[in-house]
Amino acid sequence: MVITAANNTRLSRRLLWGLILLYILPGLFARSPWKPDDAAGFGQSFTLTQLPFSEWALSSIGDRLYVEGGLLSAWLSGLLGKLAVALNLPYNWLDDAMRMGNVFWMILAGWAIWNTTYRLAKRVELQPEDPLGTAPTRVDYARAVADASVLCFLGTLGLLVRSHMQVPEVAELAGISIMLLGAVRSLDRPIGAGWMIGAGIAIAFFARGWAHWLPFLLMLLLSSTTHSSLRFGLLRRMTRAATVFAIPFAIWFFWLMSQKNGEIWWNAWNEWNVRRFLILDPTKSFGFEDLVITLKTLTWFLWPILPMACWTIWRYRNALSEPSIRIPLAGALAGVLVLFITNPADEANYFPLLAPLSVLAAIGLSTMKRGLISLIDWFAVLWFTFAAVLVWLGWTAATFGFPAKIASNFEKLSPGYVPDVIGLELALALMASFAWVKLIIWRTASGSRALWRPMVLTTGGVILLWLLMMTLWIPRIDYAKSFKALGESITVAVAGHPQTTGKGCVADYNLGYAQRATLQYHTSVDFTRKGQFKEAAECDFLLLQDDTRQGLKIKVEFEAKASERWELVWTGNRNSDRHEFFFLYARTGEVQEK
């Protein structure tokens, strides 16, 4: 396809930043932390807000050490939480304020992806054909391709939900994107490239450990050592990168070792990192079932950038030795390698693929035939319009009871929920739907041949569906996933029971990290973690969690061993979960002081 200056339209900077904010802001507010991953990440950050900065070297949820993740995302969210407390914001806004850290990481990742694509698209080997001398300038063409890469990034289905959660992989994605940008900068700015690669390594490491950035770095180094223009000065760049990474790592490590339980946390965290590598765990291996899971997840998680990136690789198959294709391809291969050496069922392990595939997908847009672009457009129109109609139909049925059959199905999913029509949310949903119709009309009637046009409808459709879900459905979703009502019931039960010693703390047994995190946020009681029944003597109350699918096995065993010391005073569960039950016990005898 011949690209001319007339159809090489750039996206407005305001529009591009507006799309990023329109993508990330909905879903961050007016809801409670959702179990399991969002709640666990919130609990990690929430605990930091209650501690002095001198105790931030390791992470915990309450008084339990928490090692399943990194520290960087929790540090930023904890800072935002402390700021919210200092500003005297309402308590129920605390989790909303802490989720604002996702905005920073997403903007940082988008900035790195845009600049990576821009620098690659300026290279001679990627310039469009110019048989008539009407091609755009190198800068204009590179900007248009870079704009398309951000649309590819935002239009990826797998990024949508987890980018709105307090999960460490969002920060890790930013670090890996900066590593990729550093590798590209080594082509023309080798001095600054080393510092940038080191900064990316530090961000990715403190965000989520070793498992993802290490294969990524190794593949980038392998790509560099097999090409003369990249191999020059490689040792100096890596020395700078190691310096940037080693300084904060050394400071943090010595700080960690000075903390109480610091060595225990370090050993447990490293053990968790090792367990993520299947090849280092003799009890695990990558089998046929894992391969099936990987292929299924790749199909939807990386839509549509995976097939578009494959098209680019095929279209530039004779130029794979060029750095402009070699570097993002090396990053993509590193992401695939991660899937084979870690747990493929964990969606977080697919995040390292987002940055290199978004770059590759955008590079190949200028080579797509008009028929293929039309196919992408019409697929987006039909699929996202159909999905939006279903969202509206489901909301109408759940709110007004018509159609009755659909309404009854939603009642089964969230029994006890009383629908409420909120004017602002309804107005935003109507505006989003109207904007979608206008976008379709513009795209089909304008005849625009801008490079980014194949991604406009896909990205717009993703934003539309998320806006509809986060306006029309957010109250019901929050009702189904939140522990707020349950926490309030526990608070009332503890406050209304005559205590035996005046110690109102609640020991917990068999509570997961997500349950513990949300309950300690939504209750006005003091939780103290005790792992064994005999150690629970410090508190007057004990909260036990069990599952009816196992016949309440844990509850039965507990009462058989401790029925003389504990009396069941309250039982509760969330209406949306028919199997998960909580049991509150009060001490029956005198507490032995230690």
Polypeptide structure, described:
Keywords: Membrane, Transmembrane, Transmembrane helix. This is Glycosyltransferase RgtA/B/C/D-like domain-containing protein. This protein is mainly α and 594 residues long. 60% of the residues lie in helices and 6% in strands. It is built from 25 helices and seven strands. A five-stranded mixed β-sheet has the order 4-3-5-7-6, with helices on both faces. Strands 1-2 form a two-stranded antiparallel sheet. Strand 3, helix 24 and strand 4 form a beta-alpha-beta unit. Helix 2 packs across helix 3, helix 5 packs parallel to helix 17 and helix 9 runs parallel beside helix 12. The N and C termini lie far apart (80 Å).
Low-pLDDT parts are 530-536
The amount of helix comes to: 55-70%
Rg, rounded, reads 26 Å
The number of helical elements comes to: 25
Secondary structure class reads mainly alpha
Strand order of the largest sheet: 4-3-5-7-6
SSE layout and pairing:
Layout: H1 13-24, H2 37-49, E1 60-61, E2 64-65, H3 72-86, H4 94-98, H5 101-121, H6 138-154, H7 159-162, H8 169-185, H9 190-208, H10 213-225, H11 228-231, H12 234-257, H13 262-276, H14 288-301, H15 305-315, H16 323-341, H17 354-363, H18 370-400, H19 404-413, H20 423-446, H21 453-472, H22 474-481, H23 484-495, E3 506-509, H24 513-522, E4 527-529, E5 541-547, H25 553-562, E6 566-572, E7 580-587
Parallel strand pairs: 3-4, 3-5
Antiparallel strand pairs: 1-2, 5-7, 6-7
Organism: Limnobacter parvus
Transmembrane segments: 103-121, 193-221, 241-258, 291-313, 325-342, 348-366, 378-402, 422-442, 454-474
Protein name: Glycosyltransferase RgtA/B/C/D-like domain-containing protein
